[in-house]
Specification:
The structure is a single chain. The protein has 13 helices and eleven strands. The chain is an alpha+beta fold. It folds into three domains: 1-139, no CATH class; 142-264, PAS domain (Beta-Lactamase), CATH 3.30.450; 272-470, Ribonuclease H-like superfamily/Ribonuclease H (Nucleotidyltransferase, domain 5). The strands form two sheets. The chain has a six-stranded antiparallel β-sheet with strand order 3-4-5-1-2-6, with helices on both faces. The longest helix is centred in the N-terminal third of the chain and has 45 residues, at 36-80.
Length: 475
Amino acid sequence: MTAPQKLRLRFAAAGIAGVAIVIAALVSSHRGAWSGEDLTHLLMTTIGVAAVFFYVWWAAEQRVVRPLGELEREAWRAVLGTPAEPLADRVDPLFASVARSIDALVAQRAREEDETARSLAALTGRLDTEKRRLEAVLRDLTEGVIVCAPDGRTVLFNTAAQRILGRGPGLGLGRSVFELLDETPLRSAFATFANPSDAAARPRGPLGLAVVRRDAGPPLEIRIAPIGEASAAAGFVITFAPPATVQLDDRNPRAIFYDFDLLQQDRALGPLADRPLDSLAFVVFDTETTGLDPDSGDQIIQIGAVRVLNGRILDDETFDTLVNPGRRISARSTRFHGITDDDVASAPPVGMALARFHAFAGEAVLVGHNAAFDMRFVRIREADGGVEFDQPVLDTLFLSMALDPLDPDHSLDALARRFDIALDARHNALGDAHITALVLVRLIARAREAGVVTLADAVAATNRFLPPPDRQKLA
């Protein structure tokens, strides 16, 4: 309950109590039988007292309660953003001193953030130099390079690895290397380096072995080396040359994809619910459809998604496909998203598209804006693709409502304006997914400030806005 609401309740309680006290005093002071004149006097006195209390309440509402509510809203905006003018210039003079104190705190925070930013910029400059050196070395390699955490999650790969292994969904930051290569020999190699009982048996250099690929491609001769002390390796470097049947086009520029924050995560991951939001892998997605009612036959005609890992949007890891709905797209829907029957004529059917999307999503947390709408379309046809979307689902609409209950508008357009996000490619599934991903990153930062740290915290906060049957239960 907000401060203005609490004040209104207290004024109402005080008014009722005051009128009751006056009536009780008049009744107790009266002696003898009540005449008509006495009753009229009691009634007029009661009306007079009620009128006085009503006037006091009205004056307080105009001069205190409403200005206090405006102060509360403006204070939140000042704390969450960078106001164009001081808060003291935008609120009722009655609260000017409070507003000036808030302005001082906001200015102090801004100065501290500037100092922190300068310190980080100096450190980042040094790190960027080291990063460019690393990139220069890896970029010119024709060998594939994958760096993984001890549990197999990929934290770095170069384009040579991508070309050798193909562009399937298995290779990606945060994805397990065991989705690409046979797990058994890799686990054995990792254990060989980490075996504390036989230090003499540990390899003193890279360990070479042959592994089978999950995609039935030609086997790879790989070399594995630990990062740091072998007995407590922070991760492993896996390198491999292309098989003779694979020709790499060296004319194309090579890229490197990495997120070393994955090496810093707790190796014993534990329940997903207890993981901090800024350490999770998310797949933010959106759909376009033939209409608004899947129970009446409306179907998905486009799925777009982007991965977010450790609070970072991976622009190179996106999913975008048109879907043949097997029915006509209404002119009204086409006016909204611009997709026509001709556009989807050669697109895959919904079952195939959902199977591909399921492979792309992996075990990541699914995120959508008003996600219940999109998930209804997905789940009603997931059996066509032989898949089940049983991941946790986080809704940026309800997360925003939980974090900023005083804001009246939590639409995607409103959140984009609030966080100064460009509304590019609106009402395109991939474009809306990217906007939602940007919103998610901002909301995660807001959530941390509000004490909503883990996925379980976020789901609990958003569940307050859902009816009981729709509430998620995380194992």
